[in-house]
């Protein structure tokens, strides 16, 4: 009896948690039959739970309740799948389908969680309209708005990893400890550094950005530390302040620190330890009040082992490490970044470009080897180069569109209105080509497509225009 009572209490608690979730929770069995939905599902689809439970997820998609359906993809891949859907009521949602397996390795249930992106986008549109109204107000407010948009809102942090980093930034900004930001090229290391500086007590002082890999080795010492008059031929008569002095009271951002020459690393270490520098050709110590933030896309610990980077300098820089993960591992951020950059470049180029659902899903599921920078550059290119208001799959670079086509086995891509016969022919051609490229045999094509071998043979000849069919 006690066990039964405990079970009832746990079940009631679980029911409360599910029903209290602001995100949709939609559960099916391994065959796609709907087992459970929460009140958010009812609001999202504008349909009662009793009219959803017992229905098949695929049939609901065919009836137009939502599109596309994740169920067949999860069924085949047997892994978690994320995608953007549109509902019959016109809402855009980010859906994650997570399969749960039984002891035999078969899918027992699939738990779908969805977040409505429509309200976020509508809120962003309202903010944009408000900003346009504020443009006519005094310049001080306009300057404040530009500062907030540029220095703080650029930090998109919806994924769990980036939310952790966002909280770290808030803490780090309050102290002057040295920070080392690591991550692949294009992940947004500079944005993190900018946020730390502009949230700190040094925000009214300079943030000086130095790319250590972009300055020739022969010049980097004088750029950082400055020089005294007459130090070398061609030097300014009055000498020159270095970037350490220019950043006094503020932050010096040493980007690509792994590129700094070994001989200069000694001088940098001394400056960090003593909070003072000597100009090139000088003997006088100059006190500096500078916060150092370094960044690199290299493995500095490996470089230390190989003798390419000083161990003592590494530990001096690595007081507070921040590692920014690549974009492909934080999929939750992609849709928000797409919206952010689309709005940014629509505003910049006075455009009203939008993305089709196919394009959103293609971008959402792309690996992004160039990370956030690649996404930003692509969005600018699409806004500038598009001839139509809505970006279609054909407008994307081939490596992205082809990747999406290969990965979207259950979707038919139609770029324009066509007759039903044309659509049927297009689907038939895709099926025949995919099957033949995979199996290289008309017998096997007939078997997997459920047609006889002679029919498969004729259609392969028709669509592949080849005589050498097995």
From TrEMBL:
<dbReference type="InterPro" id="IPR030828">
    <property type="entry name" value="HTH_TyrR"/>
</dbReference>
<dbReference type="GO" id="GO:0005524">
    <property type="term" value="F:ATP binding"/>
</dbReference>
<keyword id="KW-0238">DNA-binding</keyword>
<dbReference type="Pfam" id="PF13426">
    <property type="entry name" value="PAS_9"/>
</dbReference>
<keyword id="KW-0547">Nucleotide-binding</keyword>
<protein>
    <recommendedName>
        <fullName>HTH-type transcriptional regulatory protein TyrR</fullName>
    </recommendedName>
</protein>
<keyword id="KW-0175">Coiled coil</keyword>
<feature type="coiled-coil region">
    <location>
        <begin position="120"/>
        <end position="154"/>
    </location>
</feature>
<dbReference type="InterPro" id="IPR002078">
    <property type="entry name" value="Sigma_54_int"/>
</dbReference>
<dbReference type="InterPro" id="IPR027417">
    <property type="entry name" value="P-loop_NTPase"/>
</dbReference>
<dbReference type="InterPro" id="IPR000700">
    <property type="entry name" value="PAS-assoc_C"/>
</dbReference>
<dbReference type="InterPro" id="IPR025943">
    <property type="entry name" value="Sigma_54_int_dom_ATP-bd_2"/>
</dbReference>
<dbReference type="Pfam" id="PF18024">
    <property type="entry name" value="HTH_50"/>
</dbReference>
<dbReference type="InterPro" id="IPR025944">
    <property type="entry name" value="Sigma_54_int_dom_CS"/>
</dbReference>
<dbReference type="Pfam" id="PF25601">
    <property type="entry name" value="AAA_lid_14"/>
</dbReference>
<dbReference type="GO" id="GO:0006355">
    <property type="term" value="P:regulation of DNA-templated transcription"/>
</dbReference>
<feature type="domain" description="PAC">
    <location>
        <begin position="77"/>
        <end position="129"/>
    </location>
</feature>
<dbReference type="Pfam" id="PF00158">
    <property type="entry name" value="Sigma54_activat"/>
</dbReference>
<dbReference type="InterPro" id="IPR035965">
    <property type="entry name" value="PAS-like_dom_sf"/>
</dbReference>
<keyword id="KW-0804">Transcription</keyword>
<keyword id="KW-0058">Aromatic hydrocarbons catabolism</keyword>
<dbReference type="InterPro" id="IPR000014">
    <property type="entry name" value="PAS"/>
</dbReference>
<keyword id="KW-0805">Transcription regulation</keyword>
<dbReference type="GO" id="GO:0003677">
    <property type="term" value="F:DNA binding"/>
</dbReference>
<dbReference type="InterPro" id="IPR009057">
    <property type="entry name" value="Homeodomain-like_sf"/>
</dbReference>
<dbReference type="InterPro" id="IPR058031">
    <property type="entry name" value="AAA_lid_NorR"/>
</dbReference>
<dbReference type="InterPro" id="IPR003593">
    <property type="entry name" value="AAA+_ATPase"/>
</dbReference>
<feature type="domain" description="PAS">
    <location>
        <begin position="10"/>
        <end position="56"/>
    </location>
</feature>
<keyword id="KW-0067">ATP-binding</keyword>
<feature type="domain" description="Sigma-54 factor interaction">
    <location>
        <begin position="155"/>
        <end position="384"/>
    </location>
</feature>
